[in-house]
Amino acid sequence: MSRVFVAGAGSWGTALGVLLAREGHEVRLWMRSPDKAEAVAEAGENEAYLPGVPLPDLLTPSSDLVDVAGSDACLFVVPAQHARHWMEELRQASSEAALPVALCSKGLERSTLMPMHEVLAEAWPEARGAVLSGPSFAADVARGLPTAVTLACESQAERERWLSLVSAANFRLYASDDPFGAEIGGAVKNVLAIACGIAIGKGFGESAKAALIARGFAELQRFGLAMGAKQETLSGLSGLGDLVLTANSPQSRNFSLGLALGQGAEPAAYLRSQRSVAEGAATARPLTEKARAAGVEMPICEGVAAIVEGRDGVDETIAKLMNRPLRAEGAGKS
Ligand SMILES: NC(=O)C1=CN([C@@H]2O[C@H](COP(=O)(O)OP(=O)(O)OC[C@H]3O[C@@H](n4cnc5c(N)ncnc54)[C@H](O)[C@@H]3O)[C@@H](O)[C@H]2O)C=CC1
Ligand SMILES: O=C(CO)COP(=O)(O)O
Question: How far is the C-alpha of 266 from the C-alpha of 271, rounded, in Å?
Fold first, then answer.
């Protein structure tokens, strides 16, 4: 039995905490508010983020960051735009310990354009980072439905430790030595899922969505390869696998955001009305800035960035995409 600190008690942090506690690990599920931690403990359930899932006895809700100090491992599940601050806090609370930290958040930091493992390297340099990513809706994992995801880190010994810690009967981990590639897939697919939601919200139908998935995947590969990710990672669970899941289901917050935008919702107002995070909204711009700096074209992601930031309307963006010069298919340069 290990002691695991789960930083972030949204739906995914709670589902992962429940999974580990069911496997016999002692879990501290950290959230910012002491009142909320008390209410969750009393209810025996995280009603706000994962309703209907009883918390196992081995899971203790906590608002105390110092609990990280005695832990064997940390799952980091705080939304990407708040990650740096909480990594710095965890570093202090853990006495700068070289704790194994699995990054489970999917996004790029807006102010620096960095993926989470680069943020971790700056904010908590002693931590030993890994990436846990793949097609996995929190509600599915919490219900014990069969799920497979990627666990990526450079050290083989660390990978093996993570695999034995986090694998469970219906939660299958595949090992990868490409943490950067695993992160890129998760960050980009959220932006593409918004595009697919928009297509459905506009009433364009399944054929249009399939075209967006295929051309979006070409963008994901172009960008990932230019950044040094491995092709096998991009076409694996954390890339193509998660794109297929997220781009096809209203269970996805990113897809649902797109659906609402396609039906005429105003981006900022819609985002303000949501308790849950749709990471693609904040990641779209840093992603496209990073791509442009690397000379990689990502027209679908550019369109999403313009729409969610209110710089362009849905109809204008679609017209621009459809009027691009005709070209050969393939991931290529553009
Ligand atoms: N929900 C899912 O099925 C999955 C989510 N993820 C990723 O996990 C990460 C967390 O998402 P969810 O657990 O779904 O969150 P959520 O959308 O269920 O809840 C948002 C969480 O963010 C917290 N939060 C808001 N402002 C904050 C701040 N300033 N500092 C710290 N925390 C703050 C809220 O308290 C809440 O716990 C995201 O990067 C998401 O992409 C990854 C795989 C699956
Ligand atoms: O990352 C996810 C599933 O793998 C969850 O997707 P959403 O954040 O769009 O709900």
Answer: 9
Q: Say whether the ipTM exceeds 0.95.
A: yes
Helices (H), the chain: 11-22, 34-43, 83-93, 116-123, 138-142, 156-166, 179-201, 206-226, 231-234, 242-246, 253-262, 267-273, 279-293, 299-308, 314-322
- 48 CA closest ligand 1 atom index: 18
Kindly state the tokens that stand for 9.
Answer: 């008690």
End-to-end CA distance of the chain: 49
Nearby residues of 293 by Cβ (< 8 Å), 6 or more positions away: none
Q: Ligand 1: does its nearest atom lie under 6 Å from the Cβ of 93?
A: no
Ligand lying nearest the CA atom of residue 274: 1
Provide the token pair at 157.
């010994």
Nearest to 287 by CA among 264, 308, 316: 308
Where are any strands of DSSP class E within the chain?
3-7, 26-30, 59-62, 73-76, 100-103, 128-133, 147-152, 171-176
> By C-alpha distance, which of 164, 181, 173, 168 is closest to 19?
168
| CA-closest residue to ligand 2 atom 10 | 252
List the residue whose alpha carbon is closest to atom 23 of ligand 1.
Answer: 10
3-state class of 61 per DSSP? strand
Q: Does 252 sit in the ligand 2 pocket, CB within 6 Å?
A: yes
pLDDT, tens digit, 9 for 90 and up, residues 49-82: 999 999 999 999 999 999 999 999 999 999 999 9
- Enter the tokens of residue 255: 């897809």
From the list 135, 172, 127, 171, the residue with the least C-alpha distance to 153 is: 127
Q: Is the CB of 283 under 6 A from ligand 1?
A: no
How far does the centroid of ligand 2 lie from the alpha carbon of residue 328, in Å? Answer: 31
Catalytic (active site) residue 209:
no
Q: What is the pLDDT of residues 286-297, one digit of tens each?
A: 999 999 999 999
For ligand 1, atom 4, the nearest C-alpha belongs to: 12
Of the two residues 323 and 227, the one the predictor is more confident about is 227
For 88, phi then psi, to 5°, come to: -65, -40
Answer yes or no: is 2 a known binding residue. Answer: no
**What global pTM score does this model have?**
0.97
